Structures are given as C-alpha cells and as structure tokens.
Amino acid sequence: MATVREIYAYLDGQAPFSLQLGFDNAGFLVGRGDRAVTTLLVSLDITEEVVAEAVEIGAQLIVSHHPVLFHPAKSITDRDPNGRILLALTEQKIAAICAHTNLDAVFGGVNDALAQKLGLIQVEQLKQDGVDTSGRPYGIGRVGNTSGAPMYAPAFAAFVKQTLGANGVRYVDVRRPVRRVAVGGGACADMLQDALAMGCDTFVTSDVKYNGFLDAKALGVNLIDAGHYPTEQVVVPVLAKWLSAGFPTVTVATTQRHKEVFSYL
Q: What is the rounded CA–CA span in Å between residue 83 and residue 73?
C-alpha cells in the first residue's frame, strides 16, 4: 500500500520539483496526500478522457507530465474544459501529480528518453542549468551523435517521424549530413543557438515558429519540428517504469486513450 504523499516524495527524489522553471506549476496539484493508492494512471496530459479512463480502471492517482493546473483558476465550473477536469478529479477522489520542467531537465527524463529513442550515442547535456542538492547536474536538452552512415535532413526527418510515431513533421534542410543532433522535447526552439554552440548540425524539437525556421536556415542547422506530443510522449513509459520499480504493489497503467490531438493533410 502506498499513499499519494509517498508517491510524490518518490518522484521528488527522481526528478526534484525544486528544479522546475519559474513559470512552471509542477507538483502535487489535486487531491489528498493520505489517500491510499492501489492503481495509478500515467499520461502526458490530464484530459477529460484520461480522467474517465482513470475512473474505469479504478485509479486513485494520475501522474502526468503537463500540469493540470498551469495558471491561477478564477473559477472551477463545468462551463470550461479545465473546470470539468478539476471537478471530475475531485468528485471521483482522484489525485494528480504533475512532473513538468523538472522532468525535462533531470538525467533519465524527457530529453534523455528522446535521445535514446532516436538512437543517439555519447549523449551529453545541451545546456547545464545547475546542480541539484545531491550535486547532480541538470539542464533541458541533450546532444548526441548518430551511428552508422549519416543521412541528410529529408531521410532523417522521415526516420524521426516513424520512430516517434508522429503524424507529420516540418523541417528545414540545409544540406548538411546529420551527424551531431540536439534534441529538446516540447517547445525548445529558443535553444537553437545552444545547439549551434555545441557543434550540432541538426536540432529536433517542436512548436517552432516561422522565425525559428528562418534562423535555422540562416545559421546552417537542419531543424526538425516533430510535434509536442511525439517529442514528449517518450517519457510516459519512463515514468511508468520508475513508479513500478518504486511501488511494486501498486498497479501502474499507461493511458490508452490520450493520443496526438491533430493530424496533417
């Protein structure tokens, strides 16, 4: 038997919540700390469909990457999606713990999972932001080298799409072979200069604005926007693995309902 508070403390040891960026709202966001947990559900986001799924499997807790509460709520009603989600959680007595930018930054988190998924080797930090209280370095983004014969951007973009299960990708091809790759799960396009400083010829991230593509072309860096969901969904099995190891008596499920929200024509 485990409690919500114990699971939160365990996750705090794996990816300290104190490392989250200043704009973030990661942590134990909904529920009672002393609530016993026999089943939990892991998801990238907490949506109405995910809450319904948690109810169906009898979960007392949802662990997600994106915070279910990001901005201060002025009201919680059934008139908007966030209100309905929060009402459903509280009415069904389901707690929510959300590990966001702290999970982006730590060793073994989002960006290590993304680098591993793409088969990169000799992985290192893209930018070190500091060290935690245990002296472990942390920072968002990773850099690694490809193995085997180098590809050019079109072929590598196709590989990224297939490997991450993305519905589509956008990319800039500067006609440089892909050998040294930076990755930033989620919206990390503002780290393009960091990737360049690390000697990268290619950067994989998401949510790139038009200016970002222009900058990449001008700087001579292949830029691949593989989507927010595909570049971060890779951490869901990591969270499930951590939680299963930490709480072997708890049933740990991963969502089967939450998918990429948009398609490409």
A: 9
User: Residue 243 has which token pair?
Assistant: 């939680």
Residues 163-179: what's their mean pLDDT? 97
Cα 71 to its chain centre, rounded Å, is 19
Sequence-ordered strand ranges (E) for 175-245 = 180-183, 202-205, 222-225
| 3-state secondary structure at position 168 | coil
pLDDT tens figures, 108-164 = 999 999 999 999 999 999 999 998 888 888 999 999 999 988 899 999 999 999 999
Domains of the chain by range and CATH? 2-103+232-254 (3.40.1390.30), 115-225 (3.40.1390.30)
Angle subtended at Cα 188 by Cα 183 and Cα 190, rounded to the nearest 5 degrees? 120
Residue 220: what residue type? G
Task: List the beta strands (DSSP E) in the chain.
Answer: 2-3, 27-30, 36-37, 39-43, 61-64, 95-98, 121-125, 130-131, 137-138, 142-145, 170-172, 180-183, 202-205, 222-225, 251-254
Write the pLDDT tens digit of every residue in 6-46: 999 999 999 999 999 999 999 999 999 999 999 999 999 99
pTM for the whole structure: 0.95
Collapsed DSSP state (helix, strand, coil) of residue 180:
strand
